[in-house]
Structure formats: structure tokens, C-alpha cells
């Protein structure tokens, strides 16, 4: 994704053409970038060849999941719907991990029937429920137990999941008790220790601390785990203030850990695979001028991209056509939704815009479309995937008639 002759293009296709052909807003993904991200992720950890289970909650588009499966990944799912869509995408049951704190009896029953690789349990009550279903089916079910390592991921509070006050996983004491309980069960096969400390992590220290905690607890539990599921959470660069995670350091930390533990590593990346593959193409509807700044009112709203309203996250916004202009403006980019939180970014020194101009919101591949809604009875945007010069419609734009 880059400018060609001052016009932004996704691979070989100009964004202006896409806007004219499909209207706006548009979610647009680059296959080339997706493939590059997966290969890079694999290469960063090739010394121990982890099982990569893509986090379906980050982007559940069926056609993207099919491409991700072809590139060798499995799936991390957190609901029966995500499990069903992963299976429809052709992902092998032996590459599917089911996470989440509130799996219902129906969801557990379905997962057990499908013989997926692991159900990562998060409470004793859940293990008892799994055991009950397994007994009724006369089956032995492979599970993991999720540990809460009380590790601060140094990320946004709303996406931190590994501190003791978070709802996820078990404390050290409860974890060890549940390991003992599982060992004595005829219907439970405990194969995995699972952790996930948060999302958009760009600092190595939380991961290093997490590995030390896991090492200590494995020794205390006196249990050999076939799998260690380290979750995901690796961040991406959203703007020039964001750091990059040092993959080399993380790789060294894991290799050091594996010297003492003969386990297969599972990763659950989402954002680091799909985040920077996607953009939103949006049109300026109106410009409302004020003394201090101008409001750029877009046809894309918080129903299309919830992250800024939900987390206060910043996504870069760039013009589709670069202009040679000395006129630099302070703009606040907002949507049409009747909420004060329906705003995306305040940008200084932006090139001058006029009504009906096109802009791009960057890095929306993760938690963009998957968090979208029909708030204000607004249809969800079209999703397209660009492969070289080929345009693939991977989800049609919703129609108002279908919503009403």
C-alpha cells in the first residue's frame, strides 16, 4: 500500500477507482501484506516452529480466514460462532484452540463433538462442566488451563488481561489445585498451560516476566505440559509514537524457557497478522469551520470503526490524493453518528481538504470490522481484498432493506 504518482494505491489498484466503483466507506485489505505478515511471523520463531492459531476475534471474515488457513495457520476462537466459521474456512480441528471465560454448555458440547485440539478452561466450574459432557459421551477431552500470571502488559487498560484484577485465568493457587483435580479425572486429558496477558504489547519486559512466572508454576505443579499456549498480543505500529516489539529478544526468551520444558509453543496472533493489512476508504461529507479547528465530517462512523471511541486509540489518517500545497490545517476527523465519542483523530498540519475529497483511515484490519455494528441503523460497509490487480469482494455491503 503506497502512493503512485501522488495517488494512494492498494497493490496495483488505485483507491480512487475503488471509491468510484463501490462507493464509500470501504474496508479494503491487501493480500500481499497479509502473506508477508504471516511469513515474517513464522520466520521470527522458526527455531522452535510454533503452532500459529490466528485470533478469529480480531477479524472473522470467512474469505480472509480461508487465505490465512492456506498460509498454514490454525485458529484461536472464543465462541461457537467463531468455531463454526473457522471450520467453514477449512481450518483443521487439530489446529483449533477454544478460549474464553464464559463458554456455555452448548458451546462446550459442540467443541467436544468436533474433537478440536484444545479447550482452554478458565475456571474449575468450566472443567467440571467439560468433564460432565465428556462422561455423557464416554470421551476423553484434551484441555488447557489458563493461568493469570499477574503480569502487567503495559498496554491500554481496556485490553489488559493478565493482571490479578482481570477476569481472565486462574491464580497460581487455584491453577495448581485444578491441575491436581484434572490429573485424577477419567475424562480430562490436561495437555496445555495457557496464558494471554493483553493486547497491543510493544515492550518485551511483560513477556519475559510472564515466562518466568510460567516456569516457576510448572515446577510447582509437577506437571508436564505437551503445549504451552503463550497467547498473542504483539502490537503493531499505529503512529510514529508507537514502538515495535523486539521479536529477536522475545524469541531468545522463549528458547531459554524451552531449555527446561519440552513443550510445543502455541501462539494466538491477531493484530500482528491482520492489523496493518486493512484500510477504510471514506469520503468527506461536510467541513464545519470553527475558530480553532475545522471538523471534517466523514461518511464513516464509530459504528464502522469502534476502536477510537472504545479505547481512545489513534489511527493515522491520510489523503487519497497528495497535493502540492503550503496550506496546512488543523482538522478533527469525525463521523456522522449522534455521539460525542464519534471522532477518529485530531491532526495538525494536514493538507487542505474540500468536501467530497477521499481520505484513508490506516491499520484497521484488526478489531475494525469485527467490532462494527448497525448503530443508528447504518448498514455495515463492503469488504474487498486486493490481490495484485484483482479485486475480490469478500463481503457485500449490507442493504438498508435487510436491516429494516
Describe this structure in words.
The protein has twelve helices and 20 strands. With 404 residues, the chain is of the alpha/beta class. Strands 4, 13, 14, 15, 16, 17, 18, 19 and 20 form a nine-stranded mixed beta sheet that branches. An eight-stranded parallel beta barrel has the order 5-6-7-8-9-10-11-12, surrounded by four helices. It is elongated. 43% of the residues are buried. Residues 158-163 have low confidence and may be disordered.
How would you summarize what this structure contains?
It is built from 12 helices and 20 strands. It is α/β, with parallel strands linked by helices and 404 residues long. The strands form 3 sheets. Strands 4, 13, 14, 15, 16, 17, 18, 19 and 20 form a 9-stranded mixed sheet that branches. Strands 5-6-7-8-9-10-11-12 form an 8-stranded parallel barrel, surrounded by 4 helices.
Spell out the blueprint of helices and strands.
Elements: E1 2-4, E2 7-10, E3 13-14, H1 15-22, E4 26-30, H2 31-44, E5 51-55, H3 62-70, E6 74-77, H4 80-88, E7 96-98, H5 105-114, E8 118-121, H6 124-137, E9 141-146, H7 172-183, E10 188-194, H8 204-221, E11 227-229, H9 247-258, E12 264-267, H10 271-274, E13 278-289, E14 294-298, H11 307-311, E15 317-319, E16 328-334, E17 343-351, E18 358-361, E19 382-387, E20 390-395, H12 400-403
Parallel strand pairs: 4-19, 5-6, 5-12, 6-7, 7-8, 8-9, 9-10, 10-11, 11-12, 14-16
Antiparallel strand pairs: 1-2, 2-3, 4-13, 13-14, 13-18, 15-18, 16-17, 19-20
